[in-house]
Amino acid sequence: MEDEMNMESQNLDPDQGSCSATDELNQQLMSQEAPSPKLSVTELSRELDSKSDLIDDKEFDIPQVDTPPTLESILNETDDEEEPFVLEDPCLLNIDNIDTHSYDTSSVASSDSGDRTHLKRQKAIWHPQSMVWKKKLHDSFSVHGSVIRVSLLKGISAQIASAAAKVDAGLPTAIAASSLIAVGTSHGLALIFDPNQALRLCLGSTAVGAQYGAISALSINNDCSRLLCGFAKGQITMWDLASGKLLRSITDAHPPGTAILHIKFTDDPTLAICNDSGGSVFELSFKRVMGVRTCESRCLFSGSKGEVCCIEPLHAKAELRDHPITQYSLLAMASLTKILVIGLKPSLKVWMTFPYGRMDPSSVPLLAWHFVAVQTSVNPVLAFCRGDVVHFLLVKRDESGAIHVTKQKQLHLHYDLINFTWINSRTVVLLDSVEKLHVIDRQTQEELETVEISEVQLVYNSSHFKSLATGGNVSQALALVGEKACYQSISNCGGQIFYLGTKSVHVMTLRSWRERIDHLLKQECLNEALALAWSFHEGKAKAVVGLSGDEHKRKAVVADRMVEILIHYADRTMKKCPDQGKIQVMEQYFQDMVPVIVDYCLLLQRMDLLFSQMYDKMRENSVAKGVFLECLEPYILSDKLVGITAQIMKDLLLHFQDKNLMANMEACIVHMDVTSLDIQQVVLMCWENHLYDAMIYVYNSGMNDFITPMEKLFKVIAPPLAAGKSLSDEQVIMGNKLLVYISCSLAGRAYPLGNIPEDLVPLVKNQVFEFLIRLHSAEAPVDEEVYPYVRTLLHFDTREFLNVLALTFEDFKNDKQAVEYQQRIVDILLKVMVENSDFTPSQVGCLFTFLARQLAKPNNTLFVNRTLFDQVLEFLCSPDDDSRHSERQQVLLELLQAGGIVQFEESKLIQMAEKAEFYQICEFMYEREHCYDKIIDCYLRDPLRKEEVFGYIHNILSIPGYSAEEKQSVWQKAMKHIEELLSVSPSKAADMISVHFSDQIEQIIQTLQDQHLLFQFLKSLLDPREGINQDLLQLSPSVTEQFIELLCQYEPDQVLETLQFLEVYRLEETIQAVQKYQLHEASSYLLEKKGDIHGAFLVMLEWLQSKLLTLTHEGEKSTEVPSLKNIEDTLAKTIALCQRNSHNLDQQQREALWFPLLEAMMSPQRLSNSTVLCLYSDFLKNLTMQILNNMAAFIALPLILQRILQDPVYGRGKLGEIQGLVLGMLDSFNYEQTLLETTTNLLNRDLHWSLRNLRASMARGLNPKQDYCCICLQQYKRRQESADQIIVFSCGHLYHSLCLLSKDCGIDSKGQMRWTCFKCNASNRSGKLSETSSEVKKGTTLSLAQTSSESLLDPQQAQAFDQLCRLYRGTSRLALLTELSRDHGGEKHGLLHVSQGDAALNSVFQNETFQLHLTPPPLLDE
Fold it and tell me: CA-CA distances (angstroms) from residue 484 to 214, 382, 453?
């Protein structure tokens, strides 16, 4: 210990103090530890990606440039993984052999961000017994694999710990990395390590550390010749890294008492930047004059204007030193409120400022530069962040020399950052506040991987930001930011990031593409490894390292690696196969594994690998072999798999046959090249399993035989068709396939898909035609009819076969051979069908329709004897044959429409059609001749289309395009058959008549003899419910009266309801008509409508009495006793009549209604017939009670009681006889009395509440919202002019009276000013303007009230009333009661019925916002 102390005391001289301490430290370390092994070189990540086309040009918004910078050396930079280590390269450390402490990184979910044991939980373990992985891989891991590797630098970490123990170097505080690594300690020492982790220098001494404090910042210049050290007490030292000598000790570069937070070399070795804990930034200029080293300091930013806590000069690699922007020596600075970008050269200039906006004051400002290649140019991008949003700024220099900064796409995060580092131009590494690393692809903003590095125990720079070494004289804001500051603990160089921990140093690098794949393979994630390798192959992977060269070369390298993985995958699949006995388990296992092999082999287009090595491995297991073969099916069906070997095809067909997957087998066969198979065996198999498509395909493509398949199919379907039997479903399928096959062959298409080779198309067409028109089939029986194939197809489906021929004729060229073929086939068709009677009219019609279409073509060359068409016409129009009438007519119609009409004589055709009752044919012919009136006869004679005549007539008379003569002939024809039209459909006829024959209605009525038909016509015409617009009809009342009389005859029950709808009729005549048919209720309705209330009542009373008389006197004799319900309904209608009209009658007239009604009901109860009385006594008393209850509202109670007591039935008996009646009337009285008292009480309370609140509102003072005028915005005491007053409104706004007058907000009314609030009036201009009035006193504020122009209240009362209305929004009870008691009058009465007129508009119940308040009014605090 004494020796060490002596050593330290001897080395206090800064010019001599490094060598001996270094030697002794090295000796101590070497004696303690074995030499560090030499580590192999890691793959270097390129600073700029040469593939500029992968970068989104739109993101940077950079225009095209005609003359790009000469950056070929950057853009063409190679990155071969076998490249030897070069010291000048920024990457310096060898860590290949570091395995025990390296992190096998994998993405972990964000929920594990605070769990340091997640790596143990996330480790995947393969259990052979269960064959499943015990963890679920994260999505980003399964897609991207492990992107980064975090490794412990054991040599450096051990020597830092040893230095702390042996020479009291203290804990590490700062790190800087270049070709060398410098680590600063808390006791002022700087340890310099080379790329092999060997300690080269130990700069400084603990004595200097005691004087200067801890090293707080480090910086190494570009050529690794100088080291700048900043100290916690503010000093700065410069060291020569070659000799270890102290070159400068700077103590006056910045204000004393502040710690150095950052010290940074610029690209100019004579220029550096420092940032102290006072928030100031200084430029240090190093000079050497006459052998003396000096340092000049210039303040760039004063902390008094805002504290800077982060600086970042723009550094350019050697290849970019000639970039135009480097001449400005740009510097980015981050204060607590904004970002600044300044240029140090040629003169100091601020190029940009950018405020943060809202952010957490404890978040750390971050800055990072990087050159990014876009198109053919390279420009720097500045990334800055404070919190959870990263901003990117593109910095460009234009031709004039000005610098432009463009904002780019932001990166939004869900965590706060404490470090941001570019690892290359497309990949950034972020460190969040819980010490999680996030690898982000900048272009897509996709998170590639997340790694927790809390075990690093990162060093934080909090003590320097708080300047504890100088007494803590910093602002609270800077101290708060420093809580998470780790600027000096993280350094990046050449694609590597170094993290300084309290006891160790770790390095993070991007894994090469091979490492990422191998890492997945080590974890047995073969599927993920293949997916990742394929993304490398397709150029879609992110953060790719180690793939160089052109695209073809890169794909070849990756493909070779994928082949190796696939072979390993296949071996592992067979080796890990489950127990042989469990077939279902084995099938599921291979269905998960084998498709992967097949998919990737086909993606790589390695058929040789798939059908040789892979298939050979799969054949060892029958289940695997079957799954393998089934995997080929989708690729075969999509024609993506060509070149299948014969063995594979044979095994595939046998497998489908064994599995009975015939549909799958057929689908595959038609996509295969079957020439290498046993054709006969395949054909036999297809025929046995009904695979007709496959059979045809094998014959066609395997042997170029297009005839044999037709022969085989004809042999099956011809016999039953010839015998007239129906075909089975299987035979129908065969026939349909045969037709499609013939159609394809004649059109030059292969069956079932593809095309016939062009050189074979003419040959195939000829062969098929010759086959179809053969006179006899091969091996024909003696009794076979001629042309069997044509005959069979015509019997099978005539229409479709002829369609096939029609399509074929379209494709034929008009050469001699084609014309001969067409004529020949037509002659055969005529011979087969016309000369035989076993074809239906429909089939014959199809043939001639086909012929008519062919003959109608302009370039027709066919010849057909016209007499054949006449024969067909006679055959179809045969009147002796009533069968298939509609079918024969439809066939003939199609024939005519297809152009066959030119083959017939039109007069003869019409004659035969009329004789055969082919009315559609007649219509077709008359249409051609424009005889539209005759078409009406066709419709009327056709029983199936009678009702369509109305639409036809309407169209002719309405649609333009017909002449006046044609329309007139149709109109006359319709009038002639009007009665027949009415009999077809009275409603449709009435609709037609109302539109086109409205002037002839009365004439039509006179011509109609059938009274019931006339009634149906008038009902359809006049009843509004039928939908006819009555405004179009100008009818006399006699027509309506005639309809009502007919209605009384045929539908008496509908008379009353119809009368309520009808309008045009005379009352007297109508009353006579309904009385003629004794329709009492209708008569009463008409008399009431006439105004004869008493007469209407007498009709109803007589009707009621007659029913009561029938009930009582003739009940015993008559069998037709009216039902009690009928009597009750009649009484209810009579009572309703009395109620409707009692409101408009005087007391005597009311008694003339109600007392006779009461007498009519009480008189039957006086009968001595005990039987009737016993049967109906209770019923009659109930009806009497109904009358009494209803008349009590209109007749005085004493009169009613007197009338009851005078009645013998109720007067002679005991009180119990009338007790029910009296008590019922008393209950009604009590209810009405209670309702009256309650209403009076509510009105009194409302009046008291209203008056009380009016008084309270008048007495309440006003509280202004502000103490200034709302117009001039000056204090209300701005001036003391005699004419100026202060106006305060109830809304709280305050004004000067002169200001209000300037805005026209004051009106002189009868010597008193009425003021309007300017603000409230302006906001309510669209509505009704309310005025506020006030009595104004000088120098005092008065309350103002909003009133209407019609108000009779004084201003104070109006103000109070306005407040009252706002308190109790809604309709008052008084208004509700007034509305309910209003006598609306009219025919209908009800609580909510509103009569027409202005009353309806003013009703409170019609208001959309009406609400019934059931709560008491609010109480106001005194």
Answer: 18, 22, 15
